């Protein structure tokens, strides 16, 4: 079993003697910054001129500076802007403010793994990647718990880069749950694969095909929505609690038998071959280049695919049904049905 790090393996003093900058105050940025602040760390926020998130950070009592000023002041600089803008932000506002012995930190290995950011040799390069969305990371911290983190050290210029990463993980609650050490390459490739093949890409396509199959056969869209989307969470919760076995134990014998006989008919061995092709494109950089080239051109492919996804009939059905679900609270940052973001 891979070694796990917990509270006693991490020492906050590796951060307490330093000035920390969190660049970006979005999903991950607000979670890291607020929890570090609550852990007694000296945190400042770096944002672009006219940033929409500046007011939110200031309302929490955080100091907001330009990215360049925050990077200049800080000894540890965590870049938590969207992946596609990190290289530009680094070139324009961070690179020239790094001094020997500083630490550059990331919440995901993308820009280091694919070489879009190339830090100088005399700074530490570390990663602290919580395995959960930022709002859950923050909520768990406030509840006295934590979301597991991955940490990695790409460059160790000061000899204590790993201690700094562990201290950061402790400051955001990660060591309460458990921390695993990985590499930038392993984290990036497995993270992209998981979200593309299974979690986001695979699950979304599976749900859409299920909904289409039922509605095209004449069943009511509302019923189809419940059967292929709404209940997915209940099934996934069981998997997370006790593996696929607990899910199969909890459902009816009818459902369990149907799982065995029809699962492999739907997800055929060909699907595994497709997954291998997706992984190959992640490993050889083709996906990263496609994403970054599209972004550089103003994201035409991204915008087209997003609009197409939002126009799928399951979205309209869900929007109407969820109005009836008084127990469901949507995220403050998310506006349903907003195609343009
Ligand atoms: P978000 O999209 O939530 O980040 C938005 C923040 O970045 C806003 O504060 C925004 O400011 C700021 N920002 C955008 N562009 C710039 C810029 N040019 N200069 C300065 N600030 C800018 O990002 P995420 O939190 O989703 O992702 C951050 C990192 O964390 C990524 O590396 C991601 O892969 C990783 N990660 C994300 C997870 C998640 O839960 N979302 C999970 C694990 C890792 P404004 O308000 O002005 O637009
Ligand atoms: Mg990811
Ligand atoms: Mg059922």
TrEMBL record:
Binding site for NADP(+): 25-28, 51, 53, 134
CC annotations in GO: cytosol
Binding site for Mg(2+) 1: 191, 195
Catalytic activity line of the entry: (2R)-2,3-dihydroxy-3-methylbutanoate + NADP(+) = (2S)-2-acetolactate + NADPH + H(+); (2R,3R)-2,3-dihydroxy-3-methylpentanoate + NADP(+) = (S)-2-ethyl-2-hydroxy-3-oxobutanoate + NADPH + H(+)
Single Gene Ontology BP annotation: isoleucine biosynthetic process
Cofactors that this protein relies on: Mg(2+)
Family recorded in the similarity comment: Belongs to the ketol-acid reductoisomerase family.
Protein function: Involved in the biosynthesis of branched-chain amino acids (BCAA). Catalyzes an alkyl-migration followed by a ketol-acid reduction of (S)-2-acetolactate (S2AL) to yield (R)-2,3-dihydroxy-isovalerate. In the isomerase reaction, S2AL is rearranged via a Mg-dependent methyl migration to produce 3-hydroxy-3-methyl-2-ketobutyrate (HMKB). In the reductase reaction, this 2-ketoacid undergoes a metal-dependent reduction by NADPH to yield (R)-2,3-dihydroxy-isovalerate.
Protein name (Swiss-Prot/TrEMBL): Ketol-acid reductoisomerase (NADP(+))
Source organism per UniProt: Galactobacter valiniphilus
Lineage: Bacteria, Bacillati, Actinomycetota, Actinomycetes, Micrococcales
């Amino acid at each position: 079993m891979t070694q796990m790090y917990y509270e006693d393996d991490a020492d906050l003093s590796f951060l307490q003697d330093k000035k920390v900058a969190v660049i970006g105050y979005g999903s991950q940025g607000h979670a890291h910054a607020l929890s570090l602040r609550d852990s007694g760390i000296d945190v400042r926020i770096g944002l672009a001129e006219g940033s929409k998130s500046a007011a939110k950070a200031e309302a929490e009592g955080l100091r907001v500076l330009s990215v360049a000023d925050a990077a200049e002041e800080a000894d540890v600089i965590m870049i938590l802007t969207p992946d596609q803008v990190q290289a530009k932000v680094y070139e324009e506002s961070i690179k020239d403010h790094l001094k020997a012995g500083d630490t550059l930190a990331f919440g995901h290995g993308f820009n280091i793994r694919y070489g879009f950011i190339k830090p100088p040799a005399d700074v530490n390069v570390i990663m602290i990647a919580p395995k959960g969305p930022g709002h859950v990371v923050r909520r768990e911290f406030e509840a006295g718990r934590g979301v597991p983190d991955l940490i990695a050290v790409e460059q160790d210029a000061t000899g204590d880069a790993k201690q700094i990463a562990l201290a950061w993980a402790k400051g955001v609650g990660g060591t309460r749950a458990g921390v695993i050490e990985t590499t930038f390459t392993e984290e990036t490739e497995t993270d992209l694969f998981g979200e593309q093949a299974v979690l986001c890409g695979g699950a979304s396509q599976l749900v859409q095909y299920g909904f289409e199959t039922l509605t095209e056969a004449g069943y009511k869209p509302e019923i189809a929505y419940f059967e292929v989307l709404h209940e997915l969470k209940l099934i996934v919760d069981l998997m997370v609690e006790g593996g696929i076995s607990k899910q199969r134990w909890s459902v009816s014998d009818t459902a369990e038998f149907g799982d065995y006989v029809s699962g492999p008919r739907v997800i055929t061995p060909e699907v595994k071959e497709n997954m291998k092709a997706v992984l190959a494109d992640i490993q050889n950089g083709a996906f990263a280049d496609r994403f970054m080239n599209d972004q550089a051109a103003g994201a035409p492919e991204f915008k087209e695919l997003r609009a197409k996804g939002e126009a799928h009939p399951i979205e309209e059905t869900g929007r109407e049904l969820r109005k009836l679900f008084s127990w469901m609270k949507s995220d403050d940052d998310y506006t349903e049905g907003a195609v343009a973001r």
